[in-house]
Design goal:
Layout lengths: L5 H18 L5 E5 L2 E4 L5 H4 L3 H16 L5 E4 L2 H11 L7 E4 L1 H8 L13 H9 L5 H5 L3 H8 L1 H10 L10
Parallel strand pairs: 3-4
Antiparallel strand pairs: 1-2
């Protein structure tokens, strides 16, 4: 057992945030939690003349060199895909980086269980989805929108959109 050292954790989180600022502007960073952020790398691809993967690798290497901490990264065409890439795929990649688009989502994530591993689906929603016969995102794509909206209201549409890898939220929002 290790004693929690929150002050130290915050200190390192701040150091890592400063590393992000070396590569992107603060308006292109959304702090999701003390140890997770979303970076919008889109505006920087031409500037650095590098892919999102290459920029991510540079940032992860800088984090490791500066703090001694390994980090992982999910890359996606939107925030939902990036978060799912991080949560489910990146931690199993040798370099800690995973990419997810709508096609790869279908191949690698639609059959993934438990569904609670998917961002935004907690135990309560999972339990209600199970009543509709939904155990994974693939099942969710087969569930009629009207049925989802009846059960979840507006969240039903969002669940279905996420099952297809659709998320229109931006880092700046």
């Amino acid at each position: 057992y290790a004693k929690p050292r929150m002050r130290k954790y915050i200190e390192y989180a701040s150091k890592i945030y400063d590393i992000y600022l070396k590569y992107v502007s603060s308006e292109d960073i959304h702090v999701y939690s003390i140890d997770e952020v979303f970076l919008d790398l889109g505006p920087y691809l031409k500037y650095y003349k590098k892919s999102a993967y290459e920029i991510s690798k540079i940032i992860l290497d800088d984090i490791y060199k500066s703090t001694g901490l390994p980090a992982v990264c999910g890359i996606g065409e939107n925030m939902f895909l990036a978060k799912v890439a991080l949560d489910i795929l990146a931690k199993h990649e040798k370099d800690g980086i995973a990419y997810l688009d709508q096609e790869i989502l279908k191949e690698k994530i639609w059959s993934h269980e438990p569904i609670t591993d998917i961002w935004g689906i907690g135990r309560g929603i999972a339990k209600r989805l199970l009543k509709l016969g939904v155990k994974n995102l693939g099942d969710l794509t087969k569930c009629p929108l009207k049925k989802l909206e009846k059960e979840f209201g507006i969240v039903g549409r969002e669940l279905l959109e996420h099952a297809y890898g659709i998320d229109n939220t931006t880092v700046q929002e």
